[in-house]
Amino acid sequence: MRIFKVLCQFVVMGLALGLGPTLSLDGTPSPDAPAPGAAPGGMGLASTTSKPVGLEEKKDAVTALQYAADHGRSVALWQLGRIYAQGDGVTRDDMRAFEYFRQFANSHADDNPAVPRSRFVADAFVALGRYYLAGIPNSPVQSNPELAHRMFHHAASYFGDPEAQYQLAMLYVDGNGVARDPRRAIPWLSLAARKGHYKAQAQLGRMLFTGQHGERQQAVGLMWLTIACDGPGGKVPWIAEARESAFKQASDKERASALVLLERWVEGRRD
């Protein structure tokens, strides 16, 4: 795990241990945190095979999914939405994807969040939020940040979806569809970050380090930026640059405190 190399980097630089104060938002992780930014899995066209799926097979699968959706298998609506949104074996059709997602989300908006299907319902709400945020060209779906906020908020608060929590937070950061309020973004970013969402981890770290939300918390911010860089986030230029910049700006004491918090994070992941 690359995070251990980061821990070694702190040690090699001669940072003293045990200087970290007790801070809020100290990054105690959820033991069953999903992979960062992971979309609901196990439902793709090729999910049950180890070899590539041919175009004809994909077309047959779409036909089968449409039949299933027409006969009450509602999760097939989510699968069809994903297929048309991605153009996977079909011509990409965002309006058609939108309609599948909308039908599925409307039918299951009040599902028990504990049931397995809920993660797909939450993903459908997130997809609808993105469509409302950007709009769909040459369609009745126009950009409507207020509706996007409603979609993200339901998935974030009712279903606890980390991607929705991140998207909702960014609306508050940017003032898109809501009054700009970075302070309101912090709790949502924190929830998503603890579930392993690397973009939320990076955004939270950057905001805490710079004090964009208010009081600066450099050690905690550096910790979250470092965690975000462990895995896919390390290959994202803005995340890697933000972490490098924070590391250079931090004092020795702040780096030492961040190291203590990183060690706590790693220990929490082991438990």
Number of strands: 0
- Oligomeric state of this protein: single chain
Question: What's the story with the biggest beta sheet?
Answer: none
The gyration radius over C-alpha positions equals 21 Å
**DSSP helical segment count:** 12
Helical proportion, percent range:
55-70%
* Mean pLDDT value: 84
Instruction: Give the class from helix and strand content and strand pairing.
Output: mainly alpha
User: What's the N-to-C terminus distance?
Assistant: 16 Å
Name the helix and strand elements from N-terminus to C-terminus, one letter apiece. HHHHHHHHHHHH
What general form does the structure show?
elongated
**Low-pLDDT residue intervals, each spanning 5 or more residues:** 7-39, 41-50
Q: Kindly estimate the percentage of residues that lie in beta strands according to DSSP.
A: under 5%
SSE blueprint:
Blueprint (H helix, E strand, L loop, with lengths): L1 H11 L42 H16 L4 H12 L7 H15 L9 H17 L10 H13 L4 H13 L7 H13 L3 H13 L7 H11 L8 H13 L2 H19 L1
